[in-house]
Amino acid sequence: MFYNGSFPRRIFDIDSDECDEKISRIIQTCGLPKNMSKKQLEDSAEPAIGSYFVRDSTHFRFIHDALEETVSCHFYKFNPRVMFSDCDILFIRDRVRVHSDRKMIGNVDKNIVIILEDELNEDRLKPLYKRLCTELLSGRFSILLTSHLFKNRKFVHIFGTHFENSRRILGLTNTFMKMVSSEQIKNNQSSSVGKWINKHFISNKFRDNSDAINRVIEAIADRSTLMYWIVAFGCYEFFQYAWNKMSTIEHKKILGINYVLNPFVKPFFPLAVLGGSLNIVTQLISSGADVNCFSEFGKHLYV
Fold first, then answer.
1. Which InterPro entries match (predicted)?
2. What is the 3-state secondary structure (H, E, C) of the chain?
3. 44, 57, 176, 209: least surrounded by Cβ within 10 Å?
4. Average model confidence (pLDDT) for the chain?
5. What is the pLDDT of residues 231-245, one digit of tens each?
6. Helix 193-200 crosses helix 210-218 at what angle (to 10 degrees)?
7. Is the pTM above the cut of 0.85?
């Protein structure tokens, strides 16, 4: 239920072993008797229908989205490892935050999971880092870049350590400049860009830099790498972390040095302006970016 807001009725099918492993995990996680039958589990779910769940011909579902958020927050207190491993990834994006001051917790919405900065290295959070690493390595950048978590510098640095370790274990050599998004929209699907934005960003939070986001969504692979997405979304803390991990050659590419001599080098500065992060723009200028450079469309950017 945490994963996508529903679960199939076939999970209780006595004649099928398809979901037996999942049933076993549920029983273990919730502290139920090990020998509890599927029939007993189904009978225990029945009284919740109408109050907590609705049931159609194939699935049980939460009766309301707010209930899913409430239950997820309570489950975090009960078993954070399982919650972070199995919950809807959008819950992590929208409902999990890091605070530096314990006193601030009292002013937060009750359906928000708060992690304190001094807790970020605890073992119970390893499934969270693993889950986010999986998203990133799969090319699904948008969840991370729109998450409240990536506004916190300490979280970004600790996540970065986990991410680098994951890359080494998997033998991956892709850098921030080479990891390509799997969320691109091809040229023949350009009419879908608006739908993509609406689907992923219901609030108006990213409307101001929608032009920058459009560019990386529709771009060719070389201009839809993780670093392009970071800049387009104005995710400063992640930008700063990535910048510090990059080589001098990669810095020159981002700054667009020698872009006049090499037409394949497209400076990031115009995209950074559209991305809306003053901190990223300032850092690029202080590092030597040419504010009069051409955009990828061969035009000056007037601000």
1. Ankyrin_rpt-contain_sf
2. CCCCCEEEHHHHCCCCCCCHHHHHHHHHHCCCCCCCCHHHHHHHHHHHECCCEEECCCEEEECCHHHHHHHHHHHHHHCHHHHHHHCCHHHHHHHEEEECCHHHHHHCCCCCEEEEHHHCCCHHHHHHHHHHHHHHHCCCCHHHHCCHHHHCHHHHHHHHHHHHHHHHHHCCCCCCCCCECCCCCCHHHHHHHHHHHHHHCCCCCCCCCHHHHHHHHHCCHHHCEHHHHHHHCCCHHHHHHHHHHCCHHHHHHHHCCCCCCCCCCCCCHHHHHHHCCHHHHHHHHHCCCCCCCECCCCCECCC
3. 57
4. 82
5. 999 999 999 999 999
6. 120
7. no
Spatial separation of the C-alpha atoms in residues 119 and 123, rounded to whole Å: 9
Cα→Cα distances 147→169, 188, 266, Å? 25, 29, 28
